[in-house]
């Protein structure tokens, strides 16, 4: 690390609130603000890229201008939008907003599971029709959940669901039977073999070439009648048209916080199908989340500027930060 | 206890499924089935009344015919509908469906709290309008809940909410600071003094002359803006018109599983007010609940017929089974 202050490019977009700690960052580094269209102009000489507009993939197009880049931080849990071959094969370090979303998303998943088992959405539909229709609900204790994805969010989800009494297993790359959070982790490469006794299937894996489409028509068909899918990972983990068909048939229902195309297009049947509960990619975004993301980067930048390690790096081949 | 088999009157109603264990009960006792209109004819000589139609108050009108009655079992948690002065001053023992609803209702309360903090109902409204509107939700960990009622259901609720990370206090007749489930229990006779810092107010007290209207306009006014009321106890615990006014003003919101009049009348504003989420008295009714109630009474009847204590009695002056 040289004595000069690092140069940080803040990649943002119109209408996105800037980091709350921008002034503090500017005391440590020279800050250049860019958007998709100006990124190539801002990158020459820059050491660090802060991807604050987390849906941007502009770096792949401005990559030729990244002549001094050493570190890219993505202010999100998933880094799928930013990765491309040039970045993967470079020595540029990639970090993510590790930990920030773990507990908020775990709570959101629990909310979806309870809403399903206690029939809250159906009760609201009856209320809208001004109909008083008593029905029996389910105990949530004892229900069987499979959490696909064993990173920080999956682990926080497993711990919370277990505290409420659900039976929880995980699905990941490395099967095992003694995981501290999941107990049993089944092989996510052989998902269909582990879905026949699942009541609540929680998708929270990172999107990589391995996980893309991992919940396809064949896997969905092995879920029991009445099973409930919660997707808080990425839309492309799931074959959305196959899931739509299962929901339309009344066999499955789902809470989908992420979708193939966001916002969901106007003519998509998921807007109106009974049993489909879509939400606009907000499961982890609790009040103050942008401040937390800003604080996290400020801390990492402080470490970087002092020559210390800014935090765990994404394995760019795998597409996520590997566990211990 | 004499050698003759006890006579049990089953008080039911048209359309109510009979107890699953009726045949087993008939091996222990003579069973007479009655409805509101025939109760007076069935009671003479009967030892036991099983109130299976839990909304019935027919016993007060047929009381003159209860010439041998020793025990009334109500297949519900709350016994308010059955109690009247003649029964209170008699030596007839009253029991309730103690424990059956504790965990199911605790789960339902948690579902309501999470639906509120994660904006699930609002998200469904946007979905119905096919609008993609990102919003920030709340962390539920750290939120402040006050559970009014320290019986079995209140205790199960407190334990579950604490496991999910809420800060929980109780409100009951006997204030204390070392309760195993609540930690602090504040004085329910002075409720208004303890509502200023409550995010989620859970009403689960039994309905008695002391608790009727305990959450009145004055108490409601002390709740902070944005507070959320969950009523799974009895409608009459709350001044329903005062609560309706607070919801109409947008200051409070509520999940109400119980109401002054059930079913809720057709013209009631609670059907349509944003922020009012009514449900048809179903919070504890999980799949199999009637079987559990039947099994519970069969076990108690078996004890009774053998001369053993059938289980903890309701304090008929107070209107509930007192804690230890």
From TrEMBL, chains A, B:
UniProt keyword list: NAD, Oxidoreductase
Q: Which CDD domains does the record match to this protein?
A: 2-Hacid_dh_1
One Pfam entry for this protein is: 2-Hacid_dh_C
- Asked if the record carries the keyword Plastid, the reply is no
Transmembrane in keyword set:
no
**One MF term in the entry's GO annotations:** oxidoreductase activity, acting on the CH-OH group of donors, NAD or NADP as acceptor
Segments forming domain D-isomer specific 2-hydroxyacid dehydrogenase NAD-binding: 111-283
Record's protein name:
Putative oxidoreductase
């Amino acid at each position: 690390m040289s004595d000069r202050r690092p140069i940080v490019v803040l990649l943002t977009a119109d209408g996105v609130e800037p980091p709350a700690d921008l002034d503090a960052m500017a005391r440590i580094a020279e800050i250049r603000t860019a958007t998709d269209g100006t990124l190539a102009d801002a990158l020459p000489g820059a050491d660090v890229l802060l991807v604050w507009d987390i849906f941007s993939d502009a770096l792949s197009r401005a990559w030729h201008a990244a002549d001094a880049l050493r570190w890219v931080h993505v202010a999100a849990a998933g880094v799928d939008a930013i990765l491309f071959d040039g970045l993967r094969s470079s020595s540029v370090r990639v970090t993510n907003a590790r930990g920030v979303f773990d507990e908020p998303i775990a709570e959101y998943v629990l909310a979806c599971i309870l809403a399903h088992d206690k029939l809250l959405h159906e009760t609201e539909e009856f209320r809208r029709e001004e109909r008083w229709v008593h029905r029996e609900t389910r105990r949530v204790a004892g229900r069987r959940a499979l959490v696909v994805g064993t990173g920080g969010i999956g682990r926080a989800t497993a711990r919370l669901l277990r505290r409420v009494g659900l039976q929880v297993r995980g699905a990941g790359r490395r099967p095992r039977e003694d995981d501290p959070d999941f107990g049993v982790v089944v092989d996510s490469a052989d998902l269909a073999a582990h879905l026949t006794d699942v009541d609540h299937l929680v998708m929270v894996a990172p999107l990589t070439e391995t996980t893309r489409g991992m919940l396809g028509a064949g896997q969905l068909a092995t879920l029991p009648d009445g099973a409930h899918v919660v997707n808080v990972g990425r839309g492309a983990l799931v074959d959305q048209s196959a899931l739509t068909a299962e929901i339309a048939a009344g066999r499955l229902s789902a809470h989908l916080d992420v979708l193939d195309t966001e916002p969901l297009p106007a003519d998509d049947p998921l807007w109106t199908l009974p049993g489909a509960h879509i939400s606009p990619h907000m499961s982890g975004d609790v009040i103050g989340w942008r401040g937390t993301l800003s604080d996290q980067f400020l801390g990492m930048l402080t470490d970087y500027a002092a020559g210390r390690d800014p935090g765990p790096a994404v394995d760019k081949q795998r597409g996520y930060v590997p566990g211990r």
